[in-house]
């Protein structure tokens, strides 16, 4: 059997195996049931297979399993019923062994896991959410994180991850904003490239590599009104120039799996969009991997998009368009064989999809090394070095939006500090969506971090939750105000929550303790499927801030949230504002590090924050024809893309473009001097923007085309250089080709999208 000979080329092994398979076995490779439903945890800790899973294996096999190790309220897997790192590896091995031994050809299962900001399994390291990861402006550090995520996932047997999310956010009311890197396609592309390199590593069959899956293809973040899975209204030219750019770059970097989006574009569902999946992805970009749907997306073709009159029609549409695997649905399993029998599909269509999946299984080494090492999983997952990396990343991602009269950093000699707010000591609220249940003590909250930073002196820190994220109860106000009145300064941790109901029950607003009752309470106002009509603080959080402000104490607001918050009163009245997004399990330490000046903040916004929701959209790269203003306000963001403050001050000077005139195929070297003018060391994100001043197509006023994060000691100057050539100057023309037109360009370098130096660059006519 050639397919069992690891010395043979992958192509030969695939073809040999494919010709041995029955129609049912081929169809089985396209099927991906819910993994947590395939096993049962026995009283002695071992894993048994469910009868349903046994039947699927007997009927032709199971190509892949989704979220076998996933634990959260949606799966119903808890700390009690779930699996430890070692147990998880043992369970995956047991499932794999059963599938390979009980199926006719011994084809291994591909275990696909969620790893957006850490493997979504019990005990795995929880890093900051992608919106925070983007705010680092440090793709290399993100790649380091992805290496850790791949190691922790593969050590338990997971071989594919459904990340990174490369969606470009147009409307931050969208609940999945936290899962993205922000609003700019260039920055998202840079992060996507590093994700592919970090997750897939040098070799797919290595013990620390997993298959990266780019999602959601395409334009998922550009939906109507910011509503999840809503229609997208966009022309092909803009689609190629903006939303497809990150995907193209990640495919060029070697990505071998792509997930389609739920939405439609101009009436065509992405799940059946042959132009996207065949013409663009495979023919233009040369993609060689496989395409998977999002969960339940095929069902939307008959009940939602209504482009198919039956399941049989739906699977025929999808397979012919270029879908290779169905995530966690039953459409392929139920209808592919029938569609072939009725002539709506050819067996060659099925062969093509099955071959793509088998090829990746061979490349991942699953046929030759199908089992995980439970001892390795136990020793690697969640180890101290990974927690320290999570802390380092959180430090770099936190953005200081305001610091009036040097309110920060706080002195550790402070007499008393009040730590107030619903996010001050709420572990799940600082983790974001796609997070597993956490054992006590695994998460460092803001309160924990501040107490430890102050040496554990209990009498120095006064704590009160004050209120919930949602709801109108003010019963905690009196205690919160009493704490604030006694303190020298107030740290107010407010914002949002993407925490699903992990069984914490209600919260005692006097003590902040969890009170488990039969009446659970969810503060979730962000996350998948949780879209909003406004961007204001929910509940009575703003009122709590206003009451505390009346006491006249320094007020430091720490936002913990998954999308921008538009609260003009906070902007005007808070003495300092930190935007932490969801900073992960070490977030409390990282926030304390910045509050007390142990770390100089270096995070910068990757998404514009509006003054009011009525300004949306406010992304910075809008076209010159955007109009004038509203009657009530202008259209400028409260905090622009790229913005962020430091405890020191950086100055820009001596911007040069050499040579100032180039051809379309030549490069210019752009240089700018950056000086630390303050008295503290710090890191600055130097940003390069380019404006095409006259073009055949209406262009954005400016677009990010380069960035570099540098560290400077007080008084030091560094010359930062960028190369500008065809890739930085081109745009997508009316005929969908990428061109560089001759003419005048402006090259801009500065600290953010609304503040920069500018110099001219000319592209001359050819010949």
TrEMBL record:
Q: Which InterPro entries match?
A: Cellulose_Degrad_GH3, Fn3-like, GH, Glyco_hydro_3_C, Glyco_hydro_3_C_sf, Glyco_hydro_3_N, Glyco_hydro_3_N_sf, Ig-like_fold
Instruction: Name the SUPFAM superfamilies on file.
Output: (Trans)glycosidases, Beta-D-glucan exohydrolase, C-terminal domain
Recorded GO MF terms: hydrolase activity
Question: What keywords would UniProt list here?
Answer: Hydrolase
Gene3D superfamilies annotated for this entry?
Answer: Glycoside hydrolase family 3 C-terminal domain, Glycoside hydrolase, family 3, N-terminal domain, Immunoglobulins
The UniProt record lists the Fibronectin type III-like domain at: 684-753
Q: Which Pfam families match?
A: Fn3-like, Glyco_hydro_3, Glyco_hydro_3_C
Question: PANTHER family, alphabetically?
Answer: BETA-XYLOSIDASE, PERIPLASMIC BETA-GLUCOSIDASE-RELATED
Name the UniProt record assigns to this protein: Glycoside hydrolase family 3 N-terminal domain-containing protein
Organism listed in the record? Paenibacillus rhizoplanae
Taxonomic lineage is: Bacteria, Bacillati, Bacillota, Bacilli, Bacillales
């Amino acid at each position: 059997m050639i397919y069992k000979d690891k010395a043979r080329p992958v192509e030969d092994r695939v073809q040999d195996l494919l010709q041995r398979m029955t129609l049912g076995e081929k169809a089985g490779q396209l099927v991906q049931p819910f993994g947590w439903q395939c096993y049962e945890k026995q009283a002695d800790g071992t894993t048994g297979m469910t009868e349903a899973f046994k039947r699927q294996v007997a009927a032709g096999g199971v190509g892949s399993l989704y979220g076998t190790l996933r634990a959260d309220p949606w799966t119903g897997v808890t700390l009690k019923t779930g699996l430890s790192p070692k147990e998880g590896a043992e369970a995956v091995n047991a499932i794999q062994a059963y599938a390979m031994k009980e199926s006719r050809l011994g084809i291994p299962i591909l275990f696909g896991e969620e790893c957006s900001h850490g493997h979504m399994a019990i005990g795995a390291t929880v890093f900051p959410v992608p919106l925070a990861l983007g705010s680092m402006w440090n793709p290399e550090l993100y790649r380091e994180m992805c290496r850790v995520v791949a190691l922790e996932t593969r050590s338990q047997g997971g071989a594919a991850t459904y990340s990174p999310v490369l969606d470009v956010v147009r409307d931050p009311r969208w609940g999945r904003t936290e899962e993205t890197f922000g609003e700019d396609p260039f920055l998202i592309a840079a992060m996507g490239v590093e994700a592919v390199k970090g997750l897939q590593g040098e070799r797919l069959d290595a013990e620390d590599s997993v298959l990266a899956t780019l999602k959601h293809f395409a334009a998922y973040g550009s939906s109507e009104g910011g509503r999840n899975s809503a229609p997208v209204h966009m022309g092909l030219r803009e689609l190629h120039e903006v939303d497809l750019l990150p995907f193209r770059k990640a495919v060029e970097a070697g990505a071998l799996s792509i997930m389609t989006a739920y939405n439609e574009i101009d009436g065509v569902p992405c799940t059946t969009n042959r132009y996207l999946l065949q013409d663009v992805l495979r023919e233009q970009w040369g993609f060689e991997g496989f395409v998977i749907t999002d969960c339940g997306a095929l069902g939307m073709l008959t009940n939602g998009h209504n482009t198919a009159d039956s399941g049989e029609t739906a699977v025929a549409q999808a397979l012919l368009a270029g879908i290779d695997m169905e995530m966690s649905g039953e459409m392929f399993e139920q209808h592919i064989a029938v569609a072939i029998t009725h002539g709506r599909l050819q067996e060659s269509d099925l062969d093509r999809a099955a071959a793509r999946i088998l090829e990746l299984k061979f490349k991942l080494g699953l046929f030759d090394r199908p089992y995980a090492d439970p001892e390795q999983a136990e020793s690697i997952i969640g180890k101290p070095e990974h927690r320290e990396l999570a802390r380092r990343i959180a430090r770099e991602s936190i953005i200081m939006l305001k610091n009036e009269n040097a309110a920060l950093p706080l002195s550790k000699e402070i007499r008393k500090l009040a730590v107030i707010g619903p996010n001050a000591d709420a572990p799940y609220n600082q983790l974001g969506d796609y997070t597993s249940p956490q054992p006590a003590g695994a998460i460092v909250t803001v309160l924990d971090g501040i107490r430890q930073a102050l040496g554990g002196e209990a009498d120095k820190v006064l704590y009160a939750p004050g209120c919930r994220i949602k709801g109108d109860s003010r019963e905690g106000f009196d205690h919160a105000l009493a704490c604030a009145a006694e303190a020298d300064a107030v740290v107010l941790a407010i914002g949002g929550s993407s925490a699903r109901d992990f069984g914490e029950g209600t919260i005692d607003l006097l003590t902040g303790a969890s009170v488990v009752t039969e009446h659970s309470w969810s503060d979730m106002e962000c996350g998948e499927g949780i879209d909003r009509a406004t961007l204001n603080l929910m509940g009575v959080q703003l009122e709590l801030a206003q009451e505390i402000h009346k006491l006249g104490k320094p007020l430091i607001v720490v936002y913990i949230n998954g999308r921008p918050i538009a609260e003009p009163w906070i902007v005007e009245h808070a003495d300092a504002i930190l935007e932490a997004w969801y900073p992960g399990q070490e977030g409390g330490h990282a926030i304390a590090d910045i509050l007390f000046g142990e770390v100089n903040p270096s995070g910068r916004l990757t998404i514009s924050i509006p003054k009011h929701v009525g300004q949306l959209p406010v992304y910075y790269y809008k076209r010159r024809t955007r109009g004038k203003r509203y009657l009530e306000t202008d259209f400028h963001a409260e905090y622009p893309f790229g913005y962020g403050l430091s405890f020191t001050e950086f100055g820009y000077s001596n911007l040069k473009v050499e040579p100032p005139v180039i051809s379309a195929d030549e490069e210019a070297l752009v240089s700018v001097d950056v000086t630390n003018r303050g008295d503290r060391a710090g890191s600055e994100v130097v940003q390069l923007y380019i404006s095409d001043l006259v073009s055949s197509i209406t262009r954005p006023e400016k677009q990010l085309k380069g960035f570099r994060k540098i560290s400077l000691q007080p008084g030091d100057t560094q010359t930062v250089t960028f190369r500008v050539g065809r890739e930085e100057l081109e745009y997508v023309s009316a005929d969908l080709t990428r061109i560089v037109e001759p003419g005048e360009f402006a090259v801009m370098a500065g600290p953010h999208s609304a503040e920069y130096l500018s110099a001219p660059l000319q592209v001359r006519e050819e010949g």
